[in-house]
UniProtKB/TrEMBL annotation:
Organism, as annotated: Azospirillum argentinense
Descriptive protein name: GntR family transcriptional regulator
MF GO annotations: DNA binding; DNA-binding transcription factor activity
Residue ranges of the region described as Disordered: 1-21
Lineage start: Bacteria, Pseudomonadati, Pseudomonadota, Alphaproteobacteria, Rhodospirillales
Stretches assigned to the HTH gntR-type domain: 21-88
Length: 231
């Protein structure tokens, strides 16, 4: 059913190009990927000055990016002592997935209902890109597409409160998956679950989108539980 209470871009109308990322957004994107892919290892102590030189970005954008990463539980800022990258924590991952289950179901269902024609096409193309990443065994590209999918679905859902809340949780899940994926995760299966949700959104199938989100969270939860110590 069309939601007449929300503004929609007409069919076939190309949305405006997104604005150029700010220095803070650029710093955040690079640091988030470095932490998620363990290029900056859990437990590492980092400083604004070193990161500024490494990324060739000023200390103010770096500081703002680190504050955002702290809100997302990827770093801990210790006054006068530096910034520590948080450890990978299975219990935290399970807590994150408990919240994500409810929010992802809402967001994917809403995205299927409210996405415009250009967004639906983008979901189809993103699914094709994710399949190519799996075929090439390109884990980093898979994670980039996963992050982009989460952002695009949240935008298409037209619910900024849900989008802002869930944005702080996805990076934790991606890092946990990357940390364990060689031993536990089946990237083709994980990708296929993502693609099914993308296709459901593209088709405007609200129930399939919500059910696909449930299956994806089920798989991630099973992976997390398999890392818990026995006994």
């Amino acid at each position: 059913m069309r939601d007449e209470t929300l503004p929609r871009i007409g069919s076939g109308v190309k949305p405006p190009a997104p604005p150029k990322p700010t220095l803070m957004e650029d710093a955040y994107r690079q640091l988030e990927e470095m932490i998620v892919t363990l290029e900056i290892a859990p437990g590492s102590v980092v400083s604004e000055a070193i990161l500024s030189r490494s990324l060739n970005i000023g200390t103010t954008p770096i500081r703002e990016a680190l504050q955002r990463l702290a809100r997302e539980h990827l770093v801990q800022i210790l006054p006068r002592r530096g910034v520590v990258v948080t450890e990978v924590d299975v219990r935290q991952q399970l807590q994150v997935l408990e919240v994500r289950r409810e929010l992802d179901r809402l967001i994917m269902r809403s995205a299927a209902r409210r996405a415009n024609a250009a967004e639906r096409q983008a979901f189809t193309e993103m699914g094709d890109g994710m399949r190519k990443a799996v075929e090439a065994d390109d884990v980093r590209e898979f994670l980039r597409l996963d992050g982009a999918f989460n952002q695009r679905a949240a935008a298409a859902a037209r619910n900024p409160i849900a989008a802002e809340t869930v944005a702080a949780l996805h990076a934790i899940s991606r890092r946990f998956w990357f940390f364990h994926h060689r031993d536990l995760a089946d990237m083709p299966q994980t990708a296929e679950l993502h693609i099914q949700v993308m296709r459901a959104i593209a088709a405007g199938d609200e129930n399939a989108a919500a059910q696909g989100a449930e299956r994806l969270i089920d798989q991630l939860a099973d992976l997390a539980k398999s890392t818990l110590p026995l006994g």
